[in-house]
Design goal:
Layout lengths: L1 H9 L4 E4 L22 E10 L19 H14 L4 E4 L9 H17 L3 E3 L2 H5 L2 H10 L3 E3 L3 E2 L8 E2 L1 E7 L4 E10 L12 E2 L2 H12 L5 E7 L2 H10 L5 E4 L11 E3 L2 E5 L6 E14 L2 E15 L8 H16 L20 H7 L1 H8 L6 H7 L6 H7 L23 H5 L3 H6 L9 H5 L12 H8 L7
Parallel strand pairs: 2-3, 3-4, 4-5, 5-7, 9-11, 11-12, 12-14
Antiparallel strand pairs: 1-16, 2-15, 6-10, 8-9, 13-14, 15-16
Helix pairs in contact: 3-8, 9-10
The structure holds heme C (HEC) (4 copies).
């Protein structure tokens, strides 16, 4: 339908930066400003960059404009592979966000997805490291994606299959192009509690590798898991790199692209909302020893993963398996809980209805009352990260636990806004349950409700006047 034609026309011209042919790198050692017509144009090579998923496997669906998600990414990558079967896929690091069982399952799922998409390298970020050496070691053994870090020095490399760099060889008709891929994590991002590994100063770790790799590769690329300022510093000190992929705290990657001498420094952006595609153009070069290639970076394209992309069936199924694992491991019942304030308890909407019948009847007609069913419809009702905002008091004792044990606390109920009502039920105090905009914003935050406006929203659901 019209969606599909829109897709075809716009996908590949999203945010495109075509670079002038001046970034000639160490392969040729001199500028290649010769007339392009005389040089037989050779194939180009494409590199796809993503990273900093930060536990974001898919858009939650809370609002419509959300970008990203692994299954949309898969669809895009399949299209790009149709154009170039040699596509190189690289991951900057930070698949999970927090520590804990859910993020362990997430990490495994996300890595599985990268594997299925054909990623070559996953650089290790500090959030990956926080998952612990045991899990990382295990994943590094079972995954086809190579784990790379040039500055993490592991104490037991037999358990942890990690490489300081890899050289990816791409065969073109005439020659073989060698892309050297290194990776670092900034020591400044490492929590002091992470004692298992030693993280070296990036530049000290990179320098010896670079002097070794410079002659062995045609294009050198660094996955720099650091903030832009630090990545730029590396670019200044290590001009051997043709491209440095950076990140951290960058929302719109296309706005922050930098060129430091002949090195491009580009961020990937957070939560996998964008995919960057780099085009390396090759030009045939006749030397005394025979034909070889100049390579230069000719285009950088930042593609927002929006509604134009369908979900890939394969990754959608993988994410369903992820949800099934959350259910099977009963993660909802293991959510960390605190006591509600001053010994209060959640009692559920039905109790309120006894005295506030009219408000209750009206509330039943609002989306809040069916917020749990919304999750059931999208198959996320066992995911603590969703349930939290779609029920009463998940993070409190006496709040929602499971649908079996606390069915009365499903949905965004009276007490989601007014707070636990056990005391009020006895005292009928007028002072109970003051609600302001700040109560709404616990759930209606930028991520989940970007268009939230208190007045406008409250108007849509405001209670009817009580019968006296
Ligand atoms: C921080 C709180 C929060 C979290 C966490 C959250 N949601 Fe929501 N969700 C909301 C809010 C608020 C809305 C209403 C947004 C609006 O209308 O502006 C909403 C709306 C939705 C809707 C649209 C309902 C409709 O029909 O209009 C879906 C679907 C949904 N959420 C699913 C999920 C899923 C799946 C997850 C977990 C991946 C999740 N939510 C996590 C707060 C949250
Ligand atoms: C046994 C009857 C009863 C029950 C049960 C009850 N309330 Fe009330 N509620 C009252 C009365 C009576 C008042 C005081 C009304 C007045 O004096 O104007 C009140 C006041 C309130 C107020 C303050 C209104 C104001 O004047 O600002 C809120 C909010 C409220 N109730 C919410 C709830 C919620 C939520 C529940 C369920 C958790 C609940 N009530 C349960 C009887 C009840
Ligand atoms: C505990 C989390 C939570 C709180 C607190 C919360 N909301 Fe919501 N809100 C949601 C969720 C989840 C949805 C989506 C419900 C659905 O359709 O599944 C939603 C939907 C809505 C909607 C659309 C519902 C409809 O019927 O069209 C409005 C309007 C709204 N909220 C207003 C507010 C206002 C105003 C406040 C504060 C007074 C508030 N919400 C507090 C979670 C919350
Ligand atoms: C989305 C958040 C939200 C939910 C859910 C909610 N309320 Fe309220 N409630 C409010 C806000 C906001 C006010 C009024 C604030 C104001 O006008 O000062 C209010 C006011 C009230 C009042 C005093 C209003 C009056 O007319 O005197 C009562 C009583 C009350 N709510 C009861 C309930 C009951 C019972 C439920 C569940 C059936 C419920 N509320 C669900 C946000 C909520």
């Amino acid at each position: 339908m019209s969606q599909i034609s829109v897709f075809k026309t716009f996908v590949f011209i999203s945010i495109l930066l075509v670079l002038s042919n001046q970034g000639c790198n160490h392969l040729c050692g001199k500028e290649t400003n010769g007339s392009p017509d005389k040089t037989k144009s050779a194939p180009s090579i494409h590199i796809v960059l993503t990273g900093e998923e930060n536990g974001y496997l898919e858009p939650c669906g809370c609002s419509e404009e959300q970008l990203g998600g692994l299954s949309k990414r898969h669809t895009l990558i399949s299209h790009l592979k149709e154009k170039d079967e040699n596509l190189i896929l690289l991951s900057l690091g930070d698949l999970p966000s927090k520590v804990g069982r859910q993020d362990e399952i997430k990490m495994e799922t996300a890595l599985d997805a990268l594997d299925r998409m054909g990623y070559v390298v996953h650089n290790i970020g500090e959030k990956d490291l926080n998952m612990g050496i045991d899990l990382l070691g295990y994943l590094s053994q079972i995954s086809n994606v190579d784990f790379v870090s040039s500055n993490i020095v592991d104490l037991d490399t037999s358990a942890f299959n990690i490489k300081p760099y890899i050289i990816k060889e791409i065969k073109t008709e005439e020659s073989i192009l060698k892309v050297g891929i290194l990776g670092i994590v900034s020591p400044e991002l490492i929590e002091s509690a992470c004692q298992d590994v030693k993280v070296l100063d990036p530049i000290l770790a990179l320098k010896p590798l670079l002097s070794d790799l410079h002659d062995k590769t045609d294009f050198l690329l660094l996955l720099s898991h650091a903030e832009m300022a630090e990545s730029i510093k590396i670019a200044e000190v290590c001009p051997e790199f043709d491209l440095i992929v950076s990140g951290h705290l960058v929302d719109r990657p296309d706005l922050y692209l930098k060129k430091v001498n002949n090195t491009y420094v580009i961020p990937v952006g957070e939560k996998g909302k964008y995919v960057s595609e780099i085009t390396l153009s090759l030009q045939e070069k006749q030397t005394d020893e025979g034909g070889s290639f100049n390579s230069f970076l000719s285009a950088i394209e930042t593609i927002p993963l929006d509604g134009k992309f369908e979900d890939s069936h394969e990754i959608a199924m993988l994410l369903r398996t992820y949800q099934q694992r959350l259910k099977d491991e009963e993660l909802l019942a293991q959510v960390f809980k605190v006591d509600p304030p001053s010994g209060l308890e959640f009692i559920g909407n039905k109790d309120c209805a006894v005295c506030h019948g009219k408000i209750f009847k009206h509330w039943e007609e609002t989306g809040h009352s069916s917020a749990y069913e919304t999750l059931v419809r999208s198959g996320h009702e066992y995911d603590p990260e969703c349930v939290e905002c779609h029920v009463i008091g998940l993070n409190y004792f006496t709040g929602f636990e499971t649908i079996e044990s606390t069915p009365a606390l499903k949905g965004v109920g009276c007490e989601s806004c007014h707070g636990p009502g056990s005391d009020h039920k006895e005292t009928l105090s007028k002072d109970y349950g003051r609600v302001g905009v700040e109560n709404c914003e616990i759930c209606h935050n930028d991520e989940h409700s970007p268009n939230f406006e208190f007045k406008e929203y409250w108007e849509k659901i405001k209670h009817p006047a009580e019968e006296k």
